[in-house]
Amino acid sequence: MKGSLLSPAVIQKVLDTIQKTYRCGYQLAKQPKREKVLIDYSSPNIAKPFHAGHLRSTLIGNFVAKINSTVGHEVVRINYLGDWGLQFGLLGAGFKRYGSETQLADNPIKHLFDVYVEANKMADKDPVIEREAREFIQSMEQGDSNSLNLWQRFRQYSIEDYIKTYRRLGIEFDEYSGESQYWDKTPQLLEDLTMKGLLQTTQKGTQIVDLSDMYTGHSSYATLARSDGTSLYLTRDITAAIDRYDHHKFDRMYYVVDKSQVNHFKQLIGVLRMMGYSWANRIHHIQFGRVTGMKTRRGEVVFLADILDEARTRMLHNMQVTDTTKQLDDPDLTAEQLGISAVILQDFARRLSKDYKFDWDRLLQSQGNTGIFLQYTHARLYSLEQQAGFPIPSSVESIDTSHLQEPEAIDLVAHIAQFDSIVLKAYQEMEPHVIVKYLLQLGHLVSSAHKKLRVKDSPIEIAQARLILFNSARLTLAHGMDILGMKPVDQM
Question: Is the Cα torsion angle 20, 23, 25, 26 positive or negative in sign?
């Protein structure tokens, strides 16, 4: 659709559609067949650092959930915690050596992390520590009440802390599950594989499934049990997938995990196929690249909250030294929303599979292709509506769209008319950069139109037509930002 060819009737139809549908929330007009979609994302490891990969998984998974909801699917959001295995054994054994109940009560997450770091460091020097870690895991798997009580406390402390941080991002999960739910089901999985003639025992005593008919290289066999009989992450993941299908009968399931785990998911799908589960083809791995340079002023990032705190602090400073900053009711909250938008846009600015370098200075700029620019555009449009001196017309039929024939107006209408097709493309490719590119173009078109198409002091018929155009642009921008996980601000 070229802007120069838009008639007043076409402009009226575009604006009428937006005004009637976007004010009550946005959903794709022509939706695909409704499906049940499970999304496994974020998935931090208890007491280990919530590193940049977890941040990416959290932001990307939220987008995947939102875009699937937008096209009409039933979405189940799952946070599958790393709450079992050797790292938890190190934490349990380490707490017995280095733990403090006082510090645990005062700041549980920091203390658990400090204990884990110390135990991990000492394990490199002292093999006794690793032996104690394995013994701790075995005691948990054998049902030892003291070990399980300690595990339950650590897990609950961590989930409570995660929920606080996710709330800042506007993210909620339908299920908090974890590896711990499946360790006792892995013997049955191994027995099923044995009965099917799929499980082999190596000379080292490990148990594997041969996948060489499907894959080559590292993916050609899947190790499912150590020589001491304890289960692995892959074993528990396979068991979890079977349980999820039994419970949900999903049409699709996405794992949002970095691209270094591609072999893991090949093996997961491969074993399920070998077992005869046709629904294994409904499983998809959304891969993403690595982030480098993610540091706060105090040094390396440890927890997600550190990233959000740093974004808020830096944004608040920028707002305080900027002359145009409005008087705000809650500057801290606005700074947080702006900072989060900046982090999200930098993350989504390219294809998900690409690596990128985190750059605090660039992402917080108000000029250029940044999240701050999108927020500034939204706040500018909201301010225009508030200062117009008259309300937004209640219907497009009441305005004369022949007053919207300037090139800037036509280009803006033509662009917002493409929103449905852009959302569909982003869904089909499962790529947020498609929407990012569209919204940045929208922001620049709004900027050009704002300079040329005055609302205030224009004749009322012209002013009303322009105001409903700008309002339609703001609604489109707001819905696009929401799909990306940004909360639009009205003032900044």
Answer: positive
